[in-house]
């Protein structure tokens, strides 16, 4: 029994000393007290940088033109297919002309699907390339600014206030990486490099 009392006494003394030294080490700092830190962290609103990146805007415009040309090409093939379909309806089923038009109509449908698939793949490739090139430019600029300022960490932030009426936007806001920052935003500095 004396042994158990000794263990309990030693435990109480050690816990007290540990609590006292921990409190002394914190110097009584509470969450509301200001703490001086060197600024080695910054945030960047990547959506805002992308939206205002001149190079990305040019690539997006070129992509829109490519999309419009693809749409025109597909429309022309579709209209030719419609004309063939109308011509087919005027023919007697089983006739040689009916068979010829039916074959041509099937070829137009296959051509439409092939061109549509090729154009989608081409547009996806162009879009991916535009995003990758822009992203690399932005990250390189962020790295340059971070090294110049002595920043050790740059986080992606979301600058806009969420639309609380949209569940999807609200969920995105709740899951964002940076919930609060004050004076850490280098977005404008990054955008200046590209505009």
Major sheet: order of its strands? 1-2
Number of domains: 1
Amount of helix: 55-70%
In percent, how much strand structure appears in the residues? 5-15%
Low-confidence stretches: 3-18, 20-37
Number of helices: 6
Order of helices and strands: HEHHHEHH
Number of DSSP-assigned strands: 2
- Average pLDDT, all residues: 78
Which of globular, elongated, flat, extended, rod-shaped describes the shape? elongated
Largest sheet: 2 strands, parallel
End-to-end gap: 80 Å
Assign the structural class, choosing from mainly alpha, mainly beta, alpha/beta, alpha+beta, or little secondary structure. mainly alpha
Strands, helices and their partners?
Elements: H1 2-26, E1 41-45, H2 46-52, H3 54-89, H4 96-149, E2 153-157, H5 167-174, H6 187-192
Parallel strand pairs: 1-2
Task: Give a written overview of the molecule.
The protein is mainly alpha-helical. It has a two-stranded parallel ribbon. The protein is built from six helices and two strands, in the order αβαααβαα. The protein has one domain. Helices cover 70% and strands 5% of the residues. The protein is elongated and about 85 Å long. The protein starts with a helix and ends with a helix.
